[in-house]
Sequence to fold (217 residues):
Amino acid sequence: MKNSRKKNSTSLSRRLSFPDDERKLPWLPLLLDAYAIVDTGVAVAIRDEEKRRKVKLACSNGCDICCRQKDIPLYPHELVGLYWYASEKTSGPERDSLKNQLAAHAIGSPCPFLIEGSCSAHPVRPVSCRQFNVFTAPCAPGEDPYYTRRDDVLVPLPDYTDRAFAAVLSFYNMKKEGDLAKTIKLIRAQIMNLQEYDWKKLAAMMENGDSEKSREK
Fold:
């Protein structure tokens, strides 16, 4: 995995790159493009909000309150990315911990990708995770700032979010021709809750992959 500079019509300054995997998986470049668009939009929104309100972003490394929320929006193209990253890019003790958490995950538990306070799938974390940012003060344990201090929650810029959805249209066998807003609405209608998904399927897939590799040795 590496960071690469990319100058194009979206004016993105940063995009993760997995060259070998992107050549094999047609959907992966779409997903990475979409996340780069979202990340750029988040950076712009944070900059503008800090300037407008004279406040500072309160989120920092080591804070995992948002990973413990009961609702974490997730879309099908993001789910595919999580399956790929967990099964192909995790290894060692972290992989074992992730398999165990995926297999044991239940509604009400923290996000199964949260391991020792860090996201084990951070490069392909969903848009909802990327856009969830708060100002002024870090979230208290168990706090949902959408209800306790909505004004401190970052409001994503719709233009960047829509562009990110537009970047993955071909994943859904959709085209940009026609009513783009209506097309994006169809994708949004497929929203899921990461916390309610049956992650045992992914745990089993990872275990089967590990068993096959062991037999090949």
About this structure: The first strand starts at residue 2 and ends at 4. The beta strands are 2-4, 15-17, 73-74, 114-115, 118-119, 192-193.
